[in-house]
Give the backbone structure.
Amino acid sequence: MAAPQATEPESGLRLRLRVRGAVQGVGFRPFAYGVARRLSLGGFVRNDSEGVLIEVEGRNATQFVAALRADAPPLARIDAVDVQDVSPLGTEQFEIEASAGGAVLTRIPPDAATCEECLDDLFEPRGRFFRYPFVNCTHCGPRFTLTRSLPYDRAQTSMAKFAMCAACAAEYADPTNRRFHAEPIACPNCGPRLSHSIADIVAALCAGKIVALKGVGGYHLMCDARNAASVAELRRRKARDAKPFALMVANAASAALYVRPSATELALAQTPAHPIVLMRSRHNLPQAIAPGLARIGIMLAYAPLHHLLFAETAPHSSRESANAFALVATSANPGGEPLITDDVEAHARLRGIADLIVSHDREIVVRADDSVVQILDGAPAFIRRARGYTPEPIDLGADGPCVLACGGHLKATVTITRGREAFVAQHAGDLSDAETLRFYRETIAHLSRLLGVAPEAVACDMHPDYLSTRYAEETGLPLVRVQHHVAHVASVAAEHGTVGPIVGVALDGHGYGADGEAWGGELLRVDGAQWRRVGHLAPLALIGGDRAAREPWRMALAACVVTGRLSAALDRLRERPQASALIRMARDKQAWPTTTSLGRLFDAAAGLLLPDARQDYEGQAAMQLEALVEAPRVLENGWRVEHDVLDFSPLLAFLIDEAPDTRAGAEFFHGTLAAGLAAWIAADPTAIVGERIALGGGCMMNRILAEDLSERLRADGFEALHARAVPANDGGLSLGQAAVARATLAAN
């Protein structure tokens, strides 16, 4: 986000201020009102299509400008303050005026976790918000998930149907009150209501039951995380064999009972977004929560309802003390479908999963999963970007045409640009599911409406069979096809404001190459709309085609093939169905498709090191390998580079011949990968010392590899750039596509 800019007036006592950014729904008008009254200024403040318009008149007008920049409300994000000298009108009173219409150029801030003042209200027995699960103010609560259109006023939200009682109306209209124009304001007398009591919900959870709970962005499926039988039953009912569950706990002290967080991780968990943060497990909860992994995802209670649940289990403890109650809190999306938000659908679809379904009558307009973040190389990095961050824009540094970028097929997101801003929508998911595809289309329509734009062009992946590509083709707009790995590199470059040529590596599981082959370990030089493939990883056979990505033993067989060790394959894989037949085919020089993917190289190592390696979810085997590493080790001469091709066959041969134990093998694999990649990049003549190197693709979410590689690149004199504003995986593709498409349109 660019720093706020302003044009100062030269003279005069009446100033007109145009404030742009996330300045609606965050208490900006009452803040301006309070500052103006304190400085004895006349004038007005109002919301309009561009943000907030303010006029102030009086001898302290210039002090008002300084206060505006220095003391803005906590959820406000000011992009620019333009100040103009206008003729004095003799106004002595300062007023908050009604919102004005027009073409929308402002934006809505993301949802925010309950603030401390509202928590005080929630647990104040004499207050009118005592134990009310929908308490909020201008500093916290839902925003994006309940907004239909802008400007952000109650009539444009799902709170429109709730007529305010006299007490709420008085606070809403009082400029000195924290709830002045807090659009979701409500109380037990006039607001939304839960379908079940807090006591009944907690009783069900404590009895080992599974509860479907309607929250801010959709339904959660919850159970007592300490109850192994409940966790196992939730896995069985949801048909989720191994993918890790996230945990919800009451506060930071509670988190420390189950994980060993760094100070940075705890600080991230306590930001207004309250994302799921990956932290090192103490391994004192059922293994079924995160099978085979060293870290678990922890989020702190972020809605009043959550705080009430935890308070019910420990009614006499303080809010700051550790509460041992911990909940599995996973998205209610059976069969990989989108998160459920509708009450009727919840009762129809979740009845076979949940023992108790808890709804409320505040509609969720926009579904949004919980965001997932980790600390990587010293700073936050997304694994999934959604609630709490969407639709905060990314500054592209310069104005450009409005572009819709359609993303990929897995972990799909879309990006819409407006001016110099790129708005990356919340995580949609895998488009192979019909409901997800419907949600994907809804997301595009809603974001376009919210931004008030009509795209001039559309960008998509080169893969002809991606449903996102087909959607782009259906729009009839001018089409820009962007190679998958170029988009990964361009995404990192765009968010870091890099202009001009940049060297990058894109390391992932699969992407459609410019030659129609499967790419995934690419060294690229990208310059706006122009790019070239500088180098790639040595190819491995995809034995069995697409099945190789789901069955790591097939990639282990490919490793044996490429290293000339078929006899070892026969010894290692004799019990695998079809292994003998596939080995015979290899001896007969049977041709299989090949891939340059680093993700498949991870699978090969997992197939060699983990006898029971499985892929019940994407990246499972690689994540289990990562979890074994305590300190990376480097195998001397574990790679070679020939004609810009990076070949890790010596490393694979070592894993086959020496058969190290799983931990040692995982450490040699990770350390040798990082060392080989760094040497490969540094040897590229287009990579000039002192330059930035963009590191993209899903493999860059492997913290061990990413941090080791970054450290080596810095030692070689380069600056390593990681994806920070969007995920490094396919969730960030749409941002890169948008950047390349805008450059393409400019070049043409």
User: Anything to note?
Assistant: The chain has four domains: 14-96, 198-373, 397-494+728-738, 537-722.
